[in-house]
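Wed. Picked up where I left off yesterday with Pleckstrin homology domain-containing family F member 2. The coffee machine is broken again, so keeping this brief.
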Amino acid sequence: MVDKLVNSEANARRIQMVENCFGTSGQPLFLPGRVLVGEGVLTKMCRKRPKARQFFLFNDILVYGNIVIGKKKYNKQHLIPLEEVQLQALEDNGQYRNGWLIRTATKSFAVYAATQTEKQEWMAHINKCIEDLLRKSGKKPVETHAAVWVPDSEATICMHCKKTQFTMINRRHHCRNCGAVVCGPCSSKKFILPGQSNKPLRVCLDCYDNLTSMKRDGNKALAGNNNKPANSTESSGEDDSGDDEETLKDDNVTHDEHVSKNIAVNGFTTPQSCWINWMGFRVENVSSSTNDTFVHFICTFYVFHYIYNIANAAIIVQNIVWIK
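Structure written out below (tokens, as returned):
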């Protein structure tokens, strides 16, 4: 079915509609051979809480973004090449149901569908597109993927030292290598993770020690191979060009949160649900004698923010659509 739609006017029109929904903030999506397979709303597990995101599945990329106006406008477009994607089903856990992991070399995250049927259809369609793409290109699946970040709400204390309690002053940080939530002192080191960035990224102390040890062992192996005769048939391996100099500046990188919009492609429709897991707000270690006004302002802001988002989430009603 996908091959039949490659050069069709209907496919070009649908892709143009998606581009129009993103406007000038998005990248051009039309390419020769690209087909819009389906689209729908999924709940993406972001750093602070789950958020509804619009996803578009093409035969070579996965696009998602923030919903500004339902079925009309989206922003923060994010494109993921399917040849880098690996899916992993998740077991249901309380309110987190019908989920799976989307893993890539640069970023990995969890998404949740409204029903078990939608989960199965999303995973089946994505895996089919990946298989077709790899078969046509002759490439092998990517084996190294970025860690999935632990949500802030699931860690009240540092996951490394097990002592530091997170407050307004003691901020949460994420290890870019393992995804754990750690405190500042337990993530004071940085290391170059080639799959994610050319610059040193914040890692926890355990990961830093492990990565440093692996690099040291790799350098020793490389030095040993360099001392062998030139006619040796053994591979020398590639040296890690990372810089060991560490800095304490906070890179404060967060998960990208991007969105896309739905377009009617066929007649298949299933219900979609949108929910938000709100975190409790706590004010600790604040002197009541000097900061009452500040605390009152912060609490008032969060109350209004909560009401606004609940009202906004209530009006989001989307459908998932696949091409038949």
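Quick read: The first helix runs from residue 2 to 5.
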